[in-house]
Amino acid sequence: MDSQEVTLLINNSREKFKTRVPILLMIVLWSLGIIDWSPPTCESLYLYCPIIGRSRLHRKITFVVSIGWLFTMALTAYFGALTYFICFFGLKEHFLRFVIVVVCYYPSLMSGTMFYIPAFFSNRCKKSEIDEFNMSWVNLFKESAFLQRINYIKKFNMFILPRLAVYVFFNICSLAVSFVILILYIEVYNDCLTWVSYIWTASEFIGLIYLAQFCYFLYLQRVSLEEEFKESECFIKANAGKLENCTQKVKNLFCNYFQLRKLFLLWLSIIFFSITFGIAAYATWSYKKPEIRTNSTVLPTQYPLHPKGIKKYCPYSCDDPKYFENQHHLLIYNVLAFAKLLIPAVLSFSVMRGLDIKYMWNRFILRLRLMSTTDHLDFWNTFIRYTKDLHPENQLDTKLRFIIPVLGLAFGFLGGWKSHE
User: Is 274 in contact with 336 (CB distance < 8 Å)?
Assistant: First the structure.
């Protein structure tokens, strides 16, 4: 291939990609902080070049604003979690609030930033040379890598998000939790709120918005990988007998699959533990009024005797049993508690289409067997054996998927029982 053909190929791929990047999708990437400092360049002649026709100054301003939004949102959410921890740690009467919010809800809510921020620094501290078979999950958070992968998804244009219905579903789930929070504050907690409560509310709203965008980002990664599997099957079928070409194709496919599966397993571990721990603790907890002795001047345990610092502004009175004597208020509180625990689980299961994406690889192996013919018997036997050896059976992943929820349940029940002693 001479230099003119290479230039023509790059220009054609650029033009093709220019017409296929939805504007709204770039806004989603901006809200997630997945914007590169410099315009992405084509890393391989076999992939579409994600070139966006904007000036360098516009690109740098977009990058700075995007990263500024990301870290502002992350700091707000982490500050909310920190103040929750300071306010309620060690107070028995606030065990339920502490478990649901600090131990379970915030880790699930901010799981996106827990992965993206390390990936952000890793991608920028890494050497610039290209590793063709880099299998680290941090590569998934590169704008160039994502825009190359999105080409596998068909049937979308410049003005409509791919899989728009899924994007709407993720945002509706997040808005539903926000709506219940507002109802709780208006109907129940309208006379006990402090400025700390508003910080918590802002951090939750921002975190829910980010969680919806993050889930949509991962969903597109999973869908594009499924389409890449289909495209690889067609490529292998058309190139049966060409072992070197097919092995190169399947190596690239496996790297992309391995990156995404590793990220999903880590992410789902956090979600799983938070859900099971929270539900178990919630199931063992009952609303009881604090015992106040008439001959004692000691305040009930739900109020610190001498609050200092930020504790002076903590809304301890919001957990007073009087707020839950009304069955309507108690129902709102229960709905919100379960929504905070279950909505992250619903979103994560929708993203992954189950508990693991290993089904993609197993299905790929099966389809290779079905498409094999006697015309190239040696090729098919060698190629299928090589493909299976890339991803040997590993029982550790399966065991961890069961051990982590069991640990969450065990710690949750233990914490709930201990809180009543």
Answer: no
Cα 276 from Cα 342, distance rounded (Å): 10
DSSP 8-state code for residue 102? I
Cβ-proximal residues to 300 (8 Å cutoff; 6+ apart), any chain: 93, 290, 291, 292
**pLDDT tens digits, one per residue of 281-310:** 777 765 444 443 333 333 334 445 445 556
CB 384 within 8 A of CB 369: yes
Amino acid letter, 321: P
Residues 88-118 have pLDDT tens digits of 877 777 777 777 788 788 888 888 888 888 8
| Measured distance CA(216)–CA(245) in Å, rounded | 33
Residue 293 burial (10 A CB sphere; 0-12, 13-18, 19+): exposed
d(CA 166, CA 381): 40
Question: DSSP letters of 176-201?
Answer: HHHHHHHHHHHHTSTTS--HHHHHHH
Cβ burial 49-63 (10 Å sphere, 16+ → b, else e): bbbbeeeeeebeebb
